[in-house]
């Protein structure tokens, strides 16, 4: 079988996660990577066991590389995705697709014109029970959606000394928690419920209005305690925490809370979707079970099991019940669908995976949330 050769751009946190997921697919060969300079690219290629290392421009010149994964900080997504499409490469871009709507709109149009496969890594859709909730809703088992309560909580930015490029608007954009993890939450809510968000009322809070930025890359301090002189005070104006009221196109309501300073919540997306027949509740830190609430009968707990889920959910499950699947598996399952499209050579008419158009949709909602927070008023989406 001729494997599809892939190039990965950026090897911070999520780039290696893409590489690991891609290596689990039979029709893919992660043949190359690139980094900010050739020396670092070679170092990372050696660490990750990848044969070829390039600068970004040289990677795009490789005719045998058919697809590119953009895993760099947000501010690079637009220019790199555009260049890759223009070089004739299929593109899988990390969320958010771009830093603003105009960039995202241009990418959607360019991808459409080229016919190339285009995807955005909203991988949390691929927890099997997320697709199960979607299937049950489509089968009418949830009923009309009465209300939605969602949260996405983390604690990796809990201390004022926790620092990352996501704290810098020139690299991450004007929103942080909402754009970084709220985007997953808004995407999965619309994906599962089939509803469209029509209006938002947002209230942001920056807990640490100043943070301590290490003056050198943290790894140079490995094993050495940081001293006060090793930090610089940096003013922070992006949100650590946000509450957003939501209105949907069925006339009913929801609310989300996102935080990156919630001690003990490592990477927890929670949903409570109340319908006219049942309620669904699900927690990404215990992703292999979902709670089903009933008014007139026992409440139920569904365990992820290919024998128990709807038939069209089985394609995103690889292991029997009780053999738990988690975060790394979501990217494998998503890329399985994306690379079936790449094997066919073009974007499907009705993709099952999240596309640049979904990336645009998320940016639209996030920009309206930002506007609402600025105005402290309801804003239509
Ligand atoms: C950091 O908040 C982060 O790595 C996000 O950028 C990812 O999208 C999320 O899946 C996990 O947390």
UniProtKB/TrEMBL annotation:
Q: Which Pfam families does UniProt cross-reference here?
A: GFO_IDH_MocA (PF01408), GFO_IDH_MocA_C3 (PF22725)
**All residue ranges annotated as the GFO/IDH/MocA-like oxidoreductase domain in the record:** 131-280
Which stretches make up the Gfo/Idh/MocA-like oxidoreductase N-terminal domain? 4-120
Which Gene Ontology molecular-function terms are recorded?
Answer: nucleotide binding; oxidoreductase activity
InterPro entries the record matches: Gfo/Idh/MocA-like_OxRdtase_N, Gfo/Idh/MocA_oxidrdct_glycsds, GFO_IDH_MocA-like_dom, NAD(P)-bd_dom_sf
User: What are the protein's UniProt keywords?
Assistant: Oxidoreductase
Protein name, UniProt field = Gfo/Idh/MocA family oxidoreductase
**What is the species of this protein?**
Fibrisoma montanum
């Amino acid at each position: 079988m001729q494997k599809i050769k892939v190039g990965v751009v950026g090897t911070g946190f999520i780039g290696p996660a893409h590489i690991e997921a891609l290596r689990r697919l039979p029709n893919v060969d992660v043949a190359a990577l690139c980094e900010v300079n050739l020396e670092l690219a070679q170092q990372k290629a050696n660490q990750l066991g990848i044969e070829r290392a390039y600068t970004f421009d040289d990677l795009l010149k490789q005719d045998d590389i058919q697809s590119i994964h953009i895993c760099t900080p947000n501010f690079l997504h637009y220019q790199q995705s555009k260049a890759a499409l223009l070089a004739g490469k299929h593109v899988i871009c990390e969320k958010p697709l771009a830093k603003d709507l105009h960039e995202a709109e241009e990418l959607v149009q360019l991808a459409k014109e080229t016919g190339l496969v285009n995807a955005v890594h909203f991988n949390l859709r691929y927890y099997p029970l997320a697709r199960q909730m979607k299937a049950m809703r489509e089968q009418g088992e949830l009923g009309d959606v009465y209300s939605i309560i969602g949260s996405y909580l983390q604690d990796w930015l809990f201390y004022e000394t926790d620092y990352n490029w996501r704290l810098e608007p020139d690299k991450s954009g004007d929103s942080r928690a909402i754009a970084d993890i709220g985007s997953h939450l808004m995407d999965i809510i619309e994906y599962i419920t089939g509803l469209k968000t029509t209006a938002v009322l947002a209230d942001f809070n920056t807990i640490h209005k100043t943070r301590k930025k290490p003056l050198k890359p943290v790894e140079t301090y490995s094993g050495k305690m940081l001293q006060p002189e090793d930090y610089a005070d940096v003013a922070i104006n992006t949100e650590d925490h946000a509450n957003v009221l939501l209105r949907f196109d069925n006339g009913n309501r929801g609310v989300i809370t996102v935080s990156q300073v919630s001690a003990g919540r490592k990477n927890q997306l929670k949903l409570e979707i109340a319908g006219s027949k049942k309620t669904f509740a699900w927690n990404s830190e215990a992703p292999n079970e979902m709670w089903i609430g009933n008014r007139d009968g026992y409440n139920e707990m569904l365990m992820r099991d290919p024998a128990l889920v709807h038939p069209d959910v089985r394609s995103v499950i690889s292991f029997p019940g009780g053999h738990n699947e988690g975060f790394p598996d979501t990217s494998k399952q998503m890329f399985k669908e994306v690379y079936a499209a790449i094997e066919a050579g073009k974007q499907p008419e009705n993709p099952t995976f999240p596309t640049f158009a979904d990336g645009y949709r998320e940016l639209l909602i996030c920009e309206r949330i930002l506007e609402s927070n600025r105005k402290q008023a309801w804003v239509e989406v």
